[in-house]
Amino acid sequence: MMQSFWDKRYTENESVYGVLPNAYFKNFIDTTAPGTILLPAEGEGRNAIYAASKGWQVDAFDYSKVAQQKALEAANAQGLHINYAVKDIDAFKATKQYDAVALIFVHLPRALRLSFHAEVYKSIKSGGFLVLEAFAKEQLHKNSGGPKDAAMLYDVPSLCSDFNWMQMLHCEQKKLMLDEGEFHKGEAELIRFTAQRL
């Protein structure tokens, strides 16, 4: 979607996806020793701020300047530091390696997804982790969030193929109740995926 769409959404809503971290991401942070982490398409910063509060060194980016401003203001209000850039996903290159990368509802067209996921893999250190939550194909006709384009929804085999050089630690598709702000609310078909680079 265009940058103007997201700038408008972030401007018109006090909190688009809530202020609490994504539950799957929170569980990873709570059970993993702090290190460096990258959060692409981070929006208003709910996950970045939570990771920083637990001692992680956080790099994040989004292509919405409004989202960046809201995230930095929220982090500053809590006395936390996050590095947050304004950047397009299609311009992302793995110039740095991290202990973890988290992709939380980062939905992309297939060609961009493949190239971006290849760069994400390169950006994970040996022994580092990928944490991903996204809407499954079966989410298409639900009103609890996600793209209304089947090509931008995911399935487990595709994700496993994208990251086939990593060891799968957890991978499942399941129905869950979402309660993440006004735009992620209700029963949803989700994929939860954690892998480690060997």
Automatic annotation (TrEMBL):
Residues 41-128 form the Methyltransferase domain. GO terms for biological process: methylation. GO terms for molecular function: methyltransferase activity. The keyword Transferase applies. Keywords: Methyltransferase, Transferase. The keyword Methyltransferase applies. This is Methyltransferase domain-containing protein. The lineage of its organism: Bacteria, Pseudomonadati, Bacteroidota, Chitinophagia, Chitinophagales.
